[in-house]
Hints:
Elements: E1 18-22, H1 27-38, E2 42-47, H2 54-67, E3 72-76, H3 82-96, E4 101-104, H4 112-115, H5 124-152, E5 155-160, H6 164-167, H7 173-197, E6 199-206, H8 212-215, H9 220-227, H10 238-249, E7 260-263
Parallel strand pairs: 1-2, 1-4, 2-3, 4-5, 5-6, 6-7
Bound molecules: NADP nicotinamide-adenine-dinucleotide phosphate.
Amino acid sequence: MSSEKDPQPTGRRLENEVAIITGGNGGIGEVAALLFGREGARVAVHYSGLGDTSAARAAEVVKRLENLGAEAISIRANVSNYSEVTSAVEEVVNKWGKLSLLSCFAGLQGNTASWNEDPLELSDDDLLSAIRVDFLGSYHFIKACKDHMKKGGYGKVVVISSSPTINGEEAGFRFILAKDLNRIAVKSLAPKLIRDYGVYLNVIAPGTVETTANKKNYNEKQWEELMKWVPLGRAGKPEEIARVALFLSSHDSDFVVGQTIVVDGGEVRL
Ligand SMILES: NC(=O)c1ccc[n+]([C@@H]2O[C@H](COP(=O)([O-])OP(=O)(O)OC[C@H]3O[C@@H](n4cnc5c(N)ncnc54)[C@H](OP(=O)(O)O)[C@@H]3O)[C@@H](O)[C@H]2O)c1
């Protein structure tokens, strides 16, 4: 059985591409980084540098990519800070001379308390906390990458939303709001990006995915209850999200622009 850290290869669909994976040092981002490397991309594994283990986890992913035969570096940026993002992007372009792929997985980590907070009692700072990371983080990277992609004549960008944003969700309002902004922004930014820059922009809306960061918020009984809401009867695996990011980053999706791809086992049906 494959695990969170062990995506299976499917080919060399990203040969000659240069990819930045934000939040590439853990969870879904880590699995995507390894998958992109196996598919032939040179991979910049982004990390925040904010926690004690952040840099070391990125270095470990780089080592694993190199062991797979892929070229990789790690890049640090607090995604809420635009100048840190532009420096990180410049580092990639200086290293490899181009940039063609960007997948944004960085997101503010939640916990049970923040997921259960009263949506009508949040301070401005509470509300902005997730927006600064989940939405501004994606926006900063898109803004910093677009000219480099245009110069190379090709770019594919994937950002992350969340399927509960589509029908609304009372719990975790600050996260829902930030993730919904990503979904809404894609619809408005995608036409300009493809017309003026040759850059594809799409968004993945996952449901419940079995990552360490997510699962630690539930005990066994709560997790079982959660699974009852999923028609498929189980949580998604990180590689099941990473594979959709691969599709949206490869030439397999060359007629797909500005779309939300829901990947949630059937909970939300468009
Ligand atoms: N798991 C799910 O069920 C699920 C469902 C829907 C959507 N999503 C979204 O999918 C993405 C990945 O989820 P996951 O479960 O794999 O999460 P995760 O393991 O918690 O990964 C989150 C990543 O975001 C980075 N990050 C956080 N704050 C940052 C900041 N200020 N600047 C730069 N990077 C920052 C972290 O980097 P450091 O470790 O270096 O701080 C980490 O790599 C998230 O955006 C999440 O909201 C997840």
